[in-house]
């Protein structure tokens, strides 16, 4: 187990391809875990399912449910397997806020509030990543995951990131969505829309885009020929 100065004990294994998170829940404590992510747990832990976020959460594409795992009588460990094949990152929030893409949240301690933030029609539509972000704020442990490996970038004078590679960013960074080039470049270069960040903070990016992987894998998808279809 590794441990942050003020947080829970945890370890992350099998990274960066298939990150697997194990957290020790102290007696009397509770953690929140994205629905369906629990892989293993000690018998001493108890699970309760809660509805979170209501209509906004449903529109964001996230699960409406979050499971809470508590340790009423003794310490216990829980193994958490995120849905996306990629890395898992840990941040200890000290009265801070991080914004995540809507599928990135994995787990948090109870001191972290998980809410849904509306990006605005323009930013959401043109970013290609949805109209909502997950707002994680407060004090405590936060774990989130990505598709592929994860890279943390310190921003002090601005940074430009393709919208499909953004996992999360800290409060205090502002951004606007724009084309990386002119209309010709937009349609022919293979490069699309970017977020131009300004301010100071951190950005987490993923080393692969799910949409690019789907396009790559589609070339290997078996397709029935017309002749075989007519013979059926």
Please state the CA-atom Rg, rounded to the nearest Å: 20 Å
Main β sheet profile = 10 strands, antiparallel
Helix count, DSSP H or I runs of 4 or more residues: 5
Mean pLDDT: 81
Shape: globular
Share in β-strands: over 45%
Catalogue the unreliable spans: 54-61, 120-128, 182-191
Order of helices and strands: EEEEEEHEEEEEHEEEEEHEEHH
As for the number of domains, it is 1
* CATH architecture term: 4-Layer Sandwich
Kindly state the percentage of residues in helix: 10-25%
Structural class: alpha+beta
How far the N terminus sits from the C terminus, by CA atoms, comes to 58 Å
How would you describe this structure to a colleague?
The chain has one domain (2-218): 4-Layer Sandwich (Double-stranded beta-helix). It is an alpha+beta fold. The termini are far apart. It is globular. The protein has helices at 54-60, 121-127, 183-188, 210-218, 226-231; strands at 2-3, 9-13, 20-25, 30-34, 38-41, 46-51, 65-70, 76-80, 88-100, 105-109, 112-118, 132-145, 150-155, 159-162, 166-170, 174-179, 193-198, 201-206. 15% of the residues lie in helices and 48% in strands. The strands form three sheets. Strands 4, 6, 7, 9, 10, 11, 12, 13, 15 and 18 form a ten-stranded antiparallel sheet that branches. It is built from five helices and 18 strands.
């Amino acid at each position: 187990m590794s441990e942050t100065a003020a947080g829970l004990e945890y370890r992350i294994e099998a990274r960066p391809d298939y990150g697997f998170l194990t957290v020790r829940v102290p007696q009397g404590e509770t953690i929140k875990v994205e629905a369906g992510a629990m892989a293993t747990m000690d018998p001493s832990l108890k699970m309760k399912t809660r509805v979170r976020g209501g209509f906004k959460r449903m529109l964001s594409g996230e699960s409406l449910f979050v499971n809470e795992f508590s340790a009423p009588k003794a310490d216990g460990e829980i193994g958490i397997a995120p849905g996306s094949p990629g890395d898992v990152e840990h941040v200890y929030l000290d009265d801070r806020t991080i914004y995540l893409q809507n599928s990135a949240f994995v787990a948090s301690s109870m001191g972290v509030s998980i809410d849904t933030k509306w990006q605005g029609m323009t930013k959401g539509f043109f970013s290609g990543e949805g109209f909502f972000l997950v707002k994680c704020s407060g004090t405590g442990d936060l774990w989130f995951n990505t598709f592929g490996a994860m890279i943390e970038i310190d921003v002090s004078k601005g940074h430009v990131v393709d919208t499909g590679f953004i996992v999360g960013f800290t409060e205090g960074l502002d951004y606007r969505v724009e084309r990386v080039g002119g209309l010709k470049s937009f349609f022919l270069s293979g490069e699309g829309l970017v977020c131009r960040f300004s301010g100071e903070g951190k950005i987490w990016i993923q080393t692969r885009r799910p949409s690019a992987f789907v396009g790559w894998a589609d070339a290997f998808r078996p397709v029935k020929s017309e002749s075989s279809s007519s013979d059926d």
